Amino acid sequence: MGSFPNIRLQLPLVAFLLELLMIILFGVFVRYDDESDASKPDALTGNSTFLYRYASFQDVHVMVFVGFGFLMTFLQRYGFSAVGFNFLIASFSIQWATLMQGWFHHLKDGKILVGVESLINADFCAASVLIAFGAVLGRTSPVQLLIMAFFQVTIFSVNEYILLNLLEVIDAGGSMTIHCFGGFFGLAVSRVLYRPGLKKSHPKASSVYHSDIFAMIGTLFLWMYWPSFNSAISERGVNQTRAIINTYYTLASCTVTTCILSSLVDERGRINMVHLQNSTLAGAVAVGTAAEMMLTPYGSMIVGLILGTLSTLGYKFITPALEKYLHVQDTCGIHNLHAFPGFCGGIIGAITAAVASEATYGSRLHHTFPSLDKHPGRSLGGFQMAGAVVSLCMGLVGGTLVGFVLKFPIWGAASDEDCYEDEAYWEVPEEEVTLIHTVTRKEQAKEETVAYELEPQIPAH
Amino acid sequence: MGSFPNIRLQLPLVAFLLELLMIILFGVFVRYDDESDASKPDALTGNSTFLYRYASFQDVHVMVFVGFGFLMTFLQRYGFSAVGFNFLIASFSIQWATLMQGWFHHLKDGKILVGVESLINADFCAASVLIAFGAVLGRTSPVQLLIMAFFQVTIFSVNEYILLNLLEVIDAGGSMTIHCFGGFFGLAVSRVLYRPGLKKSHPKASSVYHSDIFAMIGTLFLWMYWPSFNSAISERGVNQTRAIINTYYTLASCTVTTCILSSLVDERGRINMVHLQNSTLAGAVAVGTAAEMMLTPYGSMIVGLILGTLSTLGYKFITPALEKYLHVQDTCGIHNLHAFPGFCGGIIGAITAAVASEATYGSRLHHTFPSLDKHPGRSLGGFQMAGAVVSLCMGLVGGTLVGFVLKFPIWGAASDEDCYEDEAYWEVPEEEVTLIHTVTRKEQAKEETVAYELEPQIPAH
Amino acid sequence: MGSFPNIRLQLPLVAFLLELLMIILFGVFVRYDDESDASKPDALTGNSTFLYRYASFQDVHVMVFVGFGFLMTFLQRYGFSAVGFNFLIASFSIQWATLMQGWFHHLKDGKILVGVESLINADFCAASVLIAFGAVLGRTSPVQLLIMAFFQVTIFSVNEYILLNLLEVIDAGGSMTIHCFGGFFGLAVSRVLYRPGLKKSHPKASSVYHSDIFAMIGTLFLWMYWPSFNSAISERGVNQTRAIINTYYTLASCTVTTCILSSLVDERGRINMVHLQNSTLAGAVAVGTAAEMMLTPYGSMIVGLILGTLSTLGYKFITPALEKYLHVQDTCGIHNLHAFPGFCGGIIGAITAAVASEATYGSRLHHTFPSLDKHPGRSLGGFQMAGAVVSLCMGLVGGTLVGFVLKFPIWGAASDEDCYEDEAYWEVPEEEVTLIHTVTRKEQAKEETVAYELEPQIPAH
Q1: Which of B84-93, B441-450, C66-75 is the least confident region?
Q2: Do the Cβ atoms of A259 and B10 come within 8 Å?
Q3: What are the residues whose beta carbons fall under 8 Å from the beta carbon of C117, sequence distance 6 or more?
Q4: B104/B120 Cα distance (integer angstroms)
Q5: Pairing assessment for the beta strands B111-114 and B107-108 based on DSSP bridges
Q6: Mean pLDDT of B216-240
Q7: CATH class of domain segment(s) A14-419
Q8: Which stretch of A392-396, B189-193, B344-348, B359-363 has the lowest confidence by average pLDDT?
Q9: Which of B49, B427, B438 sits opposite A266 (nearest CB)?
Q10: What are phi and psi of B334, to 5 degrees?
Q11: Average pLDDT over chain B, rounded to an integer
Q12: Under an 8 A CB cutoff, do B220 and C83 touch?
């Protein structure tokens, strides 16, 4: 320590140029939509987007800012960065996503019309960036993260356009567009930024007692609000309600399964907080695409059972193997929570779509799969599967390219020894926590004896 | 320490068998209801259950997973277990509750039809299990908790059926079905599992500074969302809104009263975090049954005043007495937050129902008390009171029976000395916290002197 | 230490008298409104206040109790007081606000009719009190805070009446009525209560690592739910949705700007948690008045850019200057988060109102500015500006008067040396945290060496 990076030039400059660009482009392109423009008539009573979407939007908003932010506070000395960089790059990403998604999807007479659904979609896109952040957590500067966000939002929007408009797949909860893409993007970035010096475990790349509890705040808000995430932009009515129900039961089953597997792989049956914090959520990722389909409640629970199993085993076996054999460092294990479960979600969606029929969906088959209107009889499953593969490839290729941009040695990355340490980029209060490493078990035992001897003599004050 | 239990066999086995049973039963019985089945027509605009219930459901969901979970993190070394076991048993309970409640209330042509209201009711039932968990917090293994959840959900559903379908009482906020039943159930379980070895206070059965703040996260989310809890399944319209208003003012008054009493029973007028974390909520428990009645806002505040008083005094005097004289150990003091206030809620509901008349309710008397349709002129108050007594008895008897099941020495319970300690069932990071016990006040004073002497000489780095 | 105040007489007495007064006045005045009274017909389907307001209310409720409460936990030894006193005075304030606002705005046949909107408005008023609390955080007793709340709610309601009913300005998000008034009120109180003994920085008037993370819980819930805050009482329909959109983009831009400025004023470009916790929110305060106007999305972002800049610079330069030259101690820097941004919000609202025309608002100009109905052609901008000035003056004068009431030496204020210390008013667990101050960097370095030497020899247990 002692030679922390100085980013007083880079951070303000890059962030200011990006923010200025946003404001100018908003000035040129962004206008209120019909449900927010004062000069437009109000939506019919009981039918406004606000009524059907706003509560869900707020839930998604909490997932993005508190959920992802606190989930990453598990590191002992990286809490400021986890929650702070999450805050910064999500705030930037939602602006840029409004523009990118607007150009692709909501352009009318050369203007982007924004409403409540724009906010949800912008938050979704930001989630994808935060997933990638999880892979490189502790090893990147905020400048790198802003640049990554800029490019990732751009590529995300292209990929989303390919899936939703060209392949015409459905992906309500974003298994493919958000999780599979974002996850593999992050893993590719991390591969390019590989730091051999961190091969041996870094002393600060682990949790302490309280940081694990902070992380549970993130986990639980993600878990509780995921039914809103997977249904936030579903077609109103039965599809939206079904997406909620499917996600709810998937998560319940996934949580029980995670505890089963976590206990099973420990020599005395203990549960591991890493598993509880992450694998409990994998089912919701994997049910994202199929959530609004007729997956059935027990089908949802089977998804939870499978993903809880695979994700927990992934944390135990795949993450170390990825680092050892493929040189992919993955701080939060996003491979097991987003990348792989997201791809599974694509497969599950493809299977569920392939077996969709009027017997199950009745006259509303076309409401759930609107592409059938234009292309009757198309292979729904095939196109869904293509969407998953495209997302995976776009993530890997995009992440690799962006990784090389981030590798330029001008973005203020910290040295290996200062990784996973808030002091690199934050004013940190003087005391506490560092102390925690310093008392060894031997000293502890000794002091404990002393303490027990002295305690009865201490007068209550 | 050193001989922590090994539950590598029991936990995975019991949890897997239970989860497998859930999936099979869901496969046989559970289907989407009319508002979530793709083949059914949509509800009329502005009239869907989603619109009236979903925001409330999400609030209840937060109460169950973050509210109860974090409220119990107040112990210094039991945060993983508090929030983790809460997560596990709630996730299991909502599945089993869907089935049990479905068989009793939503069976149609041999199938259970689930919708948004099913999720709310399942969460309600899980809350009852979590209440009982509070009594035995720190002294049970996760295997015992899963088994308790299985039986408690079963008995809960029977009791709920007796109250709602046989006695035809109303209990929107669950004072009787959830709190009174769950509270006395937990106390009975704890009585059967009495550990004489813990009679003398365990060194870890208390809070530390940060754990008390974590617990406030739980308290506040419970407190803030309780208006949603008490109104989540009320009849839509005026009843639902009234339940919100009554709960809001009850809680406001209860919080002020709790501070009054807490200060009054301390020798220099300090407030006690235990009271603030718990007694502030007792009013909402006690207003649960009457919340949708014409209790009036000032009536609600009187409920808050009385319960804030009784609950705080309960923590000060009743909880220690229960342990001393009745051998009931009650870690979270659920007697004062759920059991007793829940029974009071039954009484308050009975009184409010007894005085209900068309003068107050107008032509809508039957909307609020639907049992009058079938049984005009029945003693509303008498039946409500019967519901409270039945819930109390079912809780005591059920808890006693289940307690004996949990007493079998095969469920991996920790030894007395390892109680209130996460290391028994969790992989815990190496350092921190344990240290905290070891520095005595005497040493502290000494070191502080040293610190102040040295501080000016430390160069800023 | 050792001579902590004893408030066993004052706190219970003052709080009980106030609570008793509330219950009596509620009994005399408060009744259910038409949407919560059982004898009244239900609102038309899809048109109830519940549907349009309840989710927003719950968001505001979270901001008041968790947002403000946790934002103030940043002090190392004042977390119980921050979250606990916040809880107490907010609970009292919402009761008194219901009465005061009811007398001014909702009196019908001598009765105050309460509904969902009453709860929102009561929470708004409580927010104003909590803002003032931020200025004196750590230096007042709970008795003083209750008395302050009583008078501040009273004066708030008078000021609100002047603005909304006499000047007929609009102020949906309360830039003027809540933030400008509450902020200057708190600064004036703090000026009167000036403690010269705390001129030199108090050792406990700063954060520690974990307390800064707790504070981020407050920041983020305020930030995420602020779109609900600014739209919670907007006219339903396009105005409400527009207020959401404007606040969302203001906050995004303000957060990026705060990081830019925070980095720019540090010698090696680090970000400061104080700025991130507070200045990121300043934009939302300043957009409160104009949120429901046609500010445009890019206009909102410019507001965020300006306020993020001014607020961060305020924390760096104005707060220390206020203390040094004007003897205004401002623990949370509410000058930079509420007082000044609130006044800016008044100005921004005045400008936006001044340029409002039918070209932009169409036939709905009068929906957004209802005062035009009675006074066609009035100077909207002039009246809005008058509202800001009145709020500022009412805050300063009211705060000064109330400050003198609080100065009586009978309210149990702590001595200078016991400021910023929970032990003055709370039962605090014995161990932890105090320790944290005692290990100097020099010792740390030494112990770290020891630890690294010993670590490999410690057997895993």
Answers
A1: B441-450
A2: no
A3: C49, C53, C233
A4: 16
A5: antiparallel
A6: 96
A7: mainly alpha
A8: B359-363
A9: B427
A10: -65, -20
A11: 92
A12: yes
Amino acid letter for position C200: K
As a whole number of angstroms, the distance between CA B417 and CA B134 comes to 19
Please answer yes or no on whether B294 and C32 come within 8 Å at the CB atom: yes
Distance (Å) from the alpha carbon of A458 to chain C's nearest alpha carbon: 11
Q: What is the rounded CA–CA span in Å between residue C254 and residue C259?
A: 9
Q: What is the CA radius of gyration of chain C?
A: 23
Question: What's C134-176 look like in SS3?
Answer: HHHCCCCCHHHHHHHHHHHHHHHHHHHHHHHHHCCCCCCCCHH
Residue ranges of the alpha helices (H) in C232-357? 238-264, 273-286, 297-313, 319-326, 334, 340-354
Residues B329 and B198: beta-carbon distance below 8 Å:
yes
Q: Tell me if A307 sits within 8 A of A402, measured CB to CB.
A: no
Picking from B92, B56, B227, B67, the residue whose alpha carbon sits closest to that of residue A221 is: B67
Q: What is the mean pLDDT of residues C437-448?
A: 41
Quick one: pLDDT band at residue B450, thresholds 50, 70, 90?
very low
Strand partners, C113: C31
Chain B partners within 8 Å of A444 (Cβ)? 434-435, 438
Distances (CA, A) of A161 to A127, A354, B335, C395: 17, 22, 57, 52
Rounded Cα distance, B365 and A231, in Å: 37
Question: In this structure, which topology does domain B25-424 adopt according to CATH?
Answer: Ammonium transporter fold (1.10.3430)
Residue A319, token pair as written in the block:
């993450």
- Which of B228, B364, B458 has the CB atom closest to C39's CB atom? B364
Distance separating alpha carbons of residues A309 and A260, to the nearest angstrom:
8
Residue C183 to residue C396: CA distance in whole angstroms: 9
- Please name the residue that has the structure tokens 């718990």: B278
Tally of CA atoms within 13 A in the half-sphere of B432 that contains its CB: 19
Q: Which of A46, A84, A429 sits opposite C276 (nearest CB)?
A: A84
Q: What pLDDT does residue C319 have?
A: 96
Answer for the pair A101, A27: CB distance below 8 angstroms, yes or no.
no
Find the closest chain C residue to B358 by CA distance. C39
Q: For A11, which DSSP code?
A: H
Q: What's the CATH architecture for C17-424?
A: Orthogonal Bundle (1.10)
Q: B140 near B332, Cβ under 8 Å?
A: no
Closest residue to A228, CB basis, from B4, B45, B58: B58
pLDDT tens-digit profile of A178-210? 999 999 999 999 999 999 999 877 889 999 999
Q: Which structure tokens are listed for A230?
A: 């997977």
Inter-chain touch B88–A305, beta carbons under 8 Å: no
Mean pLDDT rounded to a whole number for chain A: 92
Task: Please return the burial class of B330, using the count of CB atoms within 10 Å of its CB with bins 0-12, 13-18 and 19+.
Answer: buried
Query: What is the DSSP secondary-structure string of B211-279?
Result: HHHHHHHHHHHHHHHHHHHHHTTSPTTHHHHHHHHHHHHHHHHHHHHHHHHHHHTSTT--EEHHHHHHH
CB C261 within 8 A of CB C313: yes
pLDDT digits (tens, 9 = 90+) for A115-124: 999 999 999 9
* Contact between chains at A298 and B27 (C-beta distance less than 8 A): yes
Read off the tokens for C72: 């103030």
User: Distance (Å, rounded) from C-alpha A254 to C-alpha A282?
Assistant: 7
Helix, strand, coil shares of chain B, percent, nearest 5, are: 70, 5, 25
Residues of chain A with pLDDT under 50: 1, 432-461
Phi/psi for C169 (5° steps) reads -90, 170
Residue type, A351: I
Given a contact cutoff of 8 angstroms between Cβ atoms, the answer to whether C92 and C21 are in contact is no
Are A72 and C270 contacting, i.e. CB atoms less than 8 angstroms apart?
no
Q: For chain A, report the end-to-end CA distance as a whole number of angstroms.
A: 41
